[in-house]
């Protein structure tokens, strides 16, 4: 080869390399590189009755949107497909058992035991109704209508929840449902939009029906593969990623509202032939144009040869060429660029003879990848030249005859600059917390971008000025003295600090100030690190209010009522006064809801809340604790006579009729009354006894009140008998552990379990914890029972870890009394050592009250458990007074959302807001969030959308003995 030609070739290659990415690929390459299992024809299965998504045409062949999408996929990947349409249940089972490779498309709620690939289309479901019907907007308007729905379809479950007043008529197939609607057997039917359009067109009934403007449900249609079939999942995703939006939309447009039956089939065939003919003409024209463009490009390359050579000589790169054995056979460098060795020391030699072992291995591996993939491959390596470490970046590309061309650039200066920049930016510029560095005089010398983002002040505004937190006139004198006292004694202060932004807005921040001293102990700098806690405090306040007030009436709920009653009892005990508790239950309120609707019922409840408030003084409390149940606290009353007067006043108020929307009716109330200290000494006892008295009032004919009497205390004897039986159960080793799965919300994988105590009584059978735990707590037996449960659970979890090879986290509830035991940490450590369970796989669940009380002994126990490696979770979070302080200062890892908030998450906006706020608060503090009590797919979907990390509940599994629970675990 002549020198000039050789230079031209190398120049062109270099230009191509500089423009090409180091690594790349598309769906076709993914198919070529896939294992042999994927390169064979893959079997795709689908539903034979889901027209027009997929169905069997008149000729018995698969047709539809999904079929066309998969044909496009096959063209993109070069992988042949065998498309089979069968019964839907059979299709899912074939993929689970790997008798088929892929299910063509399904919704995530349908695919237990499957992995879901990326979606290829969205499906909207609407309500379709006769044109004679007016004013039908959504599912809330379906009361009284006959509504057609396919048996077992997800829309059946949706409408049973959202439209309880509708009369559902079940059909076996979509076509049967359409026929029922055409025949007038139903006025409304629920169906996927594309399916309805296709079938209505088929039966020439498009003009008979209208649909709702907004869909009642929208979901993604995704291919599915068997769990663990990750190679197939990657292949499927690569193929669908290669289909661009225009191609995808063309398929959807082709099938939108279209029928392929009857005479339309011939028109379709004619259209297809015309399109094929047109494509052939376009291809010939394109081929001609391509030749013209290639000729022009070739001339341009030749014309630019001198220019490219000049460019090449100016580049700071070296170009090497290797033969098939990895030997240097040529090189080229710019005028100012020289190889790291004289040419005679590397030309004709193998890479291993020239480069150090590590660099030689990296270069050899990159060559092999470039040859195998026929792609540009990039790498970096280091060389030590004359005692100096140098960094190089190389890009290799395959040539013919297995030769390799390699472009090498010295990037040492860039690497050193990157390292220095990274060290400087790691703590400073990349921090999401504001950072201020001041000198020994308190003058600001440096601030980061987060400081500006939080405060609004730029560096020019504060550099050279004294830091506010070090100035006496900038704050309260007591806080100023506290900060300087801590800095002088400990060299650091942390706390909540109210600051002011540049725009004048005051905001709370969590601030840490640290003194930096030199080797002689002299102060050289002050470092302040802070972050804005406005949203955290707002979320906290929102959670607090929503957790302690009834959303409908604005009255305190049960939790706040208990707190206020506790305070009233405390004051009464000190003053020697009396407190009354009234339990008010509405008589026959359910009839109003059933006959007049929930809107009327809600209006009545708000009216009742106002009437009850007017019956008491401002210092008394009225709370709503259930649907039609209210509690009242009357402070400093004259014994039963004072409570008697209020009870009569309530009944007199209820004697006046209620009027709503033209309806007038009467309501009664049954009232139970207890008085402190005569009828109980604590909150729970007083409420319980008032509840007993209320039921006595109902037995007496309703709409009256009853005072609690000692004769109602028969249950006390049962409690004493329970304590005796629990002591005997400990001696006989009758306590067992059941397990409930903890599931990853996004993937559905079982990642752990909660251990739940059960009492296997010979006489009573399996006793639930709610029946014996309260007695165990009161009697102190909970410590011994908890120890037994913890040892059993840890031993079983260790066995499962060994047998499955998976790290499954075990959660165990711990009572406050256990934490107060001095030897509790030692007990946990001993059990972990004896059972062989790693501390990191144990999570202890405690209630908010344990950390809220800030008891020194309990707090020390929590810190020691965290140091041991055990995780800590706050159980039933949101049901007590939550505090930002303990969330930040105690080693909490997880928040568990109480099942009471999850139960109505899809129907109660108040509960949904609480759950969303808890998830946001937990994630903002870096905590994991677990929702318990998940019982429906709707609850799971809602929690997944909120970003909740883990879920547990009856939707996944009921608590079960170890041998049954083991069936849920991921065995190898």
From TrEMBL:
Q: What does the UniProt keyword field contain? A: Coiled coil, Membrane, Signal, Transmembrane, Transmembrane helix
Q: Which InterPro entries match?
A: Biofilm_reg_signaling (IPR052155), EAL_dom (IPR001633), EAL_sf (IPR035919), GGDEF_dom (IPR000160), Nucleotide_cyclase (IPR029787), PAC (IPR001610), PAS (IPR000014), PAS-assoc_C (IPR000700)
Domain EAL stretches: 719-972
Reactions accelerated catalytically: 3',3'-c-di-GMP + H2O = 5'-phosphoguanylyl(3'->5')guanosine + H(+)
Q: Name one GO molecular function term.
A: cyclic-guanylate-specific phosphodiesterase activity
- Output the PANTHER family linked to this UniProt entry: BIOFILM ARCHITECTURE MAINTENANCE PROTEIN MBAA, DIGUANYLATE CYCLASE DGCP
GO terms for biological process?
cellular response to nitric oxide
Question: Which positions fall inside the PAC domain?
Answer: 493-545
* All residue ranges annotated as the GGDEF domain in the record: 577-710
**Which segments of the protein form a coiled coil according to its record?**
287-314
Q: What is this protein called?
A: Diguanylate cyclase/phosphodiesterase with PAS/PAC sensor(S)
Signal sequence, start to end = 1-27
Ranges of residues in domain PAS? 304-374, 420-473
Query: Transmembrane segments in this chain: where?
Result: 266-286
């Amino acid at each position: 080869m002549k020198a000039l030609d050789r230079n031209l070739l190398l120049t062109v290659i270099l230009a191509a390399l500089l423009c090409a990415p180091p690594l790349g690929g598309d769906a076709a390459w993914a198919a070529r590189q896939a294992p042999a299992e994927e390169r064979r024809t893959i079997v795709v299965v689908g539903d034979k009755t889901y027209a027009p998504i997929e169905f069997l045409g008149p000729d018995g062949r698969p047709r539809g949107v999904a079929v066309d999408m998969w044909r496009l996929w096959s063209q993109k990947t070069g992988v042949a497909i065998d498309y089979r349409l069968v019964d839907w249940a059979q299709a899912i089972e074939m993929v689970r058992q790997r008798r088929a490779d892929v299910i063509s498309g399904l919704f995530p709620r349908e695919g237990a035991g499957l992995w879901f690939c990326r979606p290829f289309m969205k499906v909207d479901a609407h309500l379709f109704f006769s044109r004679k019907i007016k004013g039908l907007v959504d599912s809330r308007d379906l009361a009284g209508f006959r509504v057609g729905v396919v048996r077992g379809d997800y829309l059946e479950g949706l409408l049973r929840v959202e439209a309880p007043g509708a009369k559902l008529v079940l059909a076996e197939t979509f076509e049967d449902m359409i026929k029922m609607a055409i025949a007038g057997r139903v006025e409304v039917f629920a169906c996927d939009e594309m399916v309805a359009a296709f079938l209505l067109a088929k039966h020439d009934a498009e003009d008979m029906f209208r649909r709702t403007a907004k869909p009642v449900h929208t979901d993604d249609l995704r291919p599915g593969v068997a769990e663990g079939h990750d190679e197939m999942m990657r292949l499927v995703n690569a193929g669908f990623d290669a289909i661009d939006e225009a191609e995808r939309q063309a398929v959807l447009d082709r099938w939108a509202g279209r029928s392929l039956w009857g005479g339309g089939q011939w028109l379709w065939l004619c259209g297809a032939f015309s399109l094929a003919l047109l494509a052939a003409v376009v291809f010939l024209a394109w081929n001609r144009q391509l030749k013209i463009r290639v000729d022009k490009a070739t001339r341009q390359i030749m014309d630019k040869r001198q220019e490219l050579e000049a460019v090449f000589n100016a580049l700071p790169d070296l170009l090497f060429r290797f033969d098939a054995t990895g030997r240097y056979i040529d090189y080229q460098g710019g005028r100012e660029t020289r190889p790291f060795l004289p040419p005679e020391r590397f030309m004709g030699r193998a890479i291993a003879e020239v480069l150090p072992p590590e660099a030689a291995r990296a270069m050899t591996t990159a060559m092999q990848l470039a040859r195998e993939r026929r792609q540009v491959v990039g790498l970096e390596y280091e060389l030590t030249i004359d005692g100096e470490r140098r960094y190089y970046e190389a890009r290799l590309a395959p040539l013919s005859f297995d030769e390799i061309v390699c472009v090498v650039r010295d990037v040492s200066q860039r690497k050193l600059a990157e390292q220095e920049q990274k060290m400087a930016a790691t703590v400073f510029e990349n921090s999401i917390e504001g950072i201020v560095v001041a000198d020994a005089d308190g003058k600001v010398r440096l601030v980061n971008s987060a400081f500006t983002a939080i405060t609004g002040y730029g560096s020019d505004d504060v550099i050279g000025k004294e830091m506010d937190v070090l100035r006496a006139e900038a704050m309260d004198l007591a806080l100023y003295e506290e900060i300087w006292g801590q800095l002088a004694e400990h060299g650091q202060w942390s706390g909540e600090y109210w600051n002011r932004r540049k725009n004048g807005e005051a905001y709370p921040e969590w601030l840490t100030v640290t003194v930096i001293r030199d080797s002689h102990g002299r102060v050289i700098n002050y470092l302040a690190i802070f972050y804005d806690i406005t949203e955290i405090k707002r979320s906290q306040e929102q959670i607090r209010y929503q957790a302690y007030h009834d959303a409908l009436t604005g009255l305190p709920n049960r939790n706040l009522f208990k707190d206020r009653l506790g305070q009233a009892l405390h004051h009464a005990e000190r003053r020697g006064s009396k407190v009354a508790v009234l339990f008010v239950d509405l008589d026959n309120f359910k009839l109003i809801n059933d006959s007049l609707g929930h809107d009327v019922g809600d209006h009545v409840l708000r009216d009742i809340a106002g009437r009850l408030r007017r019956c008491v003084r401002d210092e008394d409390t009225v709370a709503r604790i259930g649907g039609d149940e209210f509690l009242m606290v009357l402070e400093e009353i004259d014994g039963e006579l004072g409570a008697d007067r209020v009870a009569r006043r309530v009944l007199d108020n209820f004697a006046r009729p209620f009027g709503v929307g033209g309806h007038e009716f009467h309501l009664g109330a049954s009232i139970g009354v207890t008085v402190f200290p005569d009828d109980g000494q604590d909150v729970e006892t007083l409420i319980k006894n008032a509840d007993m008295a209320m039921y006595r009032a109902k037995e007496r004919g309703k709409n009256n009140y009853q005072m609690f009497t000692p004769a109602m205390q028969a249950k006390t004897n049962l409690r004493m008998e329970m304590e005796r039986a629990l002591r005997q159960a400990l001696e006989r080793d009758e306590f067992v552990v059941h397990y409930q799965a903890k599931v990853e919300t996004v993937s559905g994988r079982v990642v752990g379990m909660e251990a739940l105590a059960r009492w296997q009584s010979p006489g009573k059978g399996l006793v639930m914890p709610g029946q014996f735990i309260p007695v165990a707590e009161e009697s102190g037996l909970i410590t011994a029972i908890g120890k037994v449960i913890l040892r059993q659970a840890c031993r079983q979890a260790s066995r499962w870890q060994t047998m499955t090879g998976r790290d499954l986290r075990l959660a165990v509830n711990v009572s406050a009394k256990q934490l107060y035991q001095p030897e509790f940490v030692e007990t946990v450590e001993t059990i972990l050592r004896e059972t062989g369970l790693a501390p990191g796989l144990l999570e202890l669940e405690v209630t908010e009250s344990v950390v809220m009380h800030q008891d020194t002994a309990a707090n020390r126990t929590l810190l020691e458990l965290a140091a041991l490696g055990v995780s800590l979770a706050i159980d039933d979070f949101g049901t007590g007074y939550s505090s930002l302080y303990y969330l930040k200062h105690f080693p909490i890892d997880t928040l568990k959302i109480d099942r009471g908030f999850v139960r109505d998450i899809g129907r109660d906006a108040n509960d949904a807001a609480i759950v969303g706020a808890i998830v946001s608060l937990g994630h903002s503090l870096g905590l994991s969030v677990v929702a318990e009590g998940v019982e429906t797919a709707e609850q799971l979907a809602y929690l997944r959308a909120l970003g909740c990390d883990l879920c547990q509940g009856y939707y996944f599994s009921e608590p079960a003995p170890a041998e049954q629970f083991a069936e849920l675990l991921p065995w190898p």
